[in-house]
Amino acid sequence: MSHAHRIVVPGPVRPLLREIGRIAEAHRMPAYAVGGCVRDWLLGNRETVDLDVTVEGNGMEVAQATARALNGTVQLHQQFGTATVIVQHTAYSRQHTTKTVRVDFATCRKETYAK
Fold this sequence. Notes:
By secondary structure, this protein is of the alpha+beta class. The protein has helices spanning 14-26, 36-42, 59-69, and strands at residues 31-34, 50-55, 73-77, 82-92, 96-107.
């Protein structure tokens, strides 16, 4: 028996994720939210402001494009093939507040392990 779970992405981060998706799509590299933020949303925690994104293609390239498009900063971690983008994001709650959001980008990879 399969139990499907519906993950609700918090409203304040939806525009940011849409923009990252648009940028990744423009580079012909699909991107997905993964990791702790998805776990938190699954558990009902809507306060997560740090995002993890994996990219089919070149995560560092999409991170750099995201930082340029959103006037953020990017730090490349060449040895791991990852990047961190820091952006100021407006959260639409009762008051329009600006929060610093960290987005960690990684390139999708396939791993295999000996039995």
